[in-house]
Amino acid sequence: MTALTADQIARVKATVPVLAVHGTTITKRFYKRMFAHHPELKNVFNQTHQKSGNQPETLAKAVYAYAANIDNLGALGPTVSRIAHKHVSLNIRPEQYPIVGRHLLGAIVDVLGDAVDQETLGAWEVAYGQLADIFIGTEAKLYKGAAWSGFRPFKVARKEVESDEITSFYLSPADGSPACGFEPGQYLSVKRFVDELGVDQPRHYSLSDAPNGKWLRISVKREAGREDTAPGHVSNLLHDGVEVGAVVHVSAPSGDFTLDRKTTTPVVLMSGGVGVTPMTSMLSTLLADQSERSVTFVHACRNGRVHAFRQWLNDTVAAHPNVTRAVFYEAIEACDRAGIDYDFEGRLDLTKIADKVIVPDADYYICGPVPFMRAQCEALASLGVDSARIHTEVFGSGVVE
Predict the structure, then answer these.
(1) Which pTM does this prediction carry?
(2) Radius of gyration of the chain (CA)
(3) Which CATH architecture has domain 6-145?
(4) Please, which residues have CB within 8 angstroms of residue 300's CB and are 6 or more apart in sequence?
(5) Residue 240 and residue 253: Cα distance in Å, rounded?
(6) CA distance linking residue 115 with residue 359, whole number of Å
(7) CA angle 101, 105, 111 (to 5 degrees)
């Protein structure tokens, strides 16, 4: 790894204000350049997020954060870990980093032109090389510990509707071998060919059950699309075109949003919508471990029609005195039963259940849409919870700020 000089560090940091203004323009240009020269990489990147602008915006924030912390890279540790896990799940390899670097630097020149001098561009070249080395080293360790490398064929052993929006797929290794273990909270990537796009598209889906050696269960929300968003290519292909016996290709379990199974502290699991999936894995694993830890399962969704794992949660609470629940429905329907299907009307409001969730030494695990997670993090902080005890997962390309 080539070390940055003091002058190079100063030059990179001096570009921070420019990145704040032009960062997304640069990253949009970067993706356009890279895909033009290497169209095969469209098989790796989420093309829906490309079209919506989510991925360029997220990359711009990451580049900005790297430049701002170029003299304190330790601050980027959690971000590097999360991205490295996603890279391994997508089978990103060391030989792809020079491609990214070449087109990122090219995009900077394309957008900024004469505003960036050769010395600054040279500083960024060294800085990118440093960052690439960090990721390559981190990912090498993850690959070494992974259950397998790349994408592997699995058969759909079972398909089960969990709600109007969410369906579970039970995936067993196509070669008949036992299913691998994993840490509750992790995800795997499923790759499907999308005719409309003409490329393979990978998507991350959280594992939604405890490890059992028989199958890996994912529970997929059908992304129907709205006025401002397109329907989800892969989720709709899975719901409509993948039946029992079909073969899908998946990556090994990955992700650092995982339940700490070594401690005995109370656990508060908080989810919004399909964010319930890693929480079912965490709670199922605690039950399989015969843990006596106090668990509070907090979930928010629109109504009973979209409430996945409702009966499972009710049965679990009834059978285990150490598990309690608090369910919020935002738009109650006539068939929704208070005290059975849900406990509170409206959006999740922690002040209504502070006596349940504000517990000494508790660890908080949160998953759901980014605005939901941001609101819960802020609410927990206002109620005096130490940020070190708050753990979040992010689907897609979003970030929790």
Answers:
(1) 0.93
(2) 22
(3) Orthogonal Bundle (1.10)
(4) 271, 272, 273, 327, 328, 329, 330, 347, 348, 368, 372
(5) 24
(6) 54
(7) 145
For residue 225, say whether it is annotated as part of any ligand binding site. no
74 labeled part of a ligand binding site:
no
Ligand-binding site membership of 274 (annotated): yes
Structure confidence at residue 400 (pLDDT): 45
If residue 2 lies in a helix (H) or strand (E), which one and from where to where?
Answer: none
Name every residue whose Cβ is closer than 8 Å to that of residue 204 and which is 6 or more positions away in sequence. 86, 89, 187, 188, 189, 395, 396
Q: What is the mean pLDDT of residues 171-187?
A: 98
Catalytic annotation, residues: 97, 139
Give me the DSSP letters along 280-322: HHHHHHHHHTT----EEEEEEES-GGG-TTHHHHHHHHHH-TT
Pairing of strands 152-161, 363-367: unpaired
Contact, 41 vs 34, CB < 8 A? yes
Q: What CA–CA distance (Å, rounded) separates 96 from 144?
A: 19
**Token duo for residue 120:** 């600054």
Asked if 275 and 204 count as a contact pair (C-beta separation under 8 A), the reply is: no
Residue type, 303: N
CA-to-CA dists, residue 256 to 84, 266, 355, angstroms: 10, 20, 29
User: Domain residue spans in the chain?
Assistant: 6-145, 152-250, 267-393
Answer yes or no: is 396 a known binding residue: yes
Strand extents, DSSP E, 38-78 = none
- 269, 197 contact by CB (below 8 A): no
- Three-state DSSP at 384 gives coil
Q: What percentage of the chain carries pLDDT values higher than 70?
A: 97
For domain 152-250, the question of CATH label 3.10.20.30 is answered with: no
CATH architecture observed for domain 267-393 = 3-Layer(aba) Sandwich (3.40)
Amino acid (one-letter) located at 287: L
pLDDT tens across 222-263, in order? 987 665 566 788 999 999 989 999 999 999 999 999 999 999
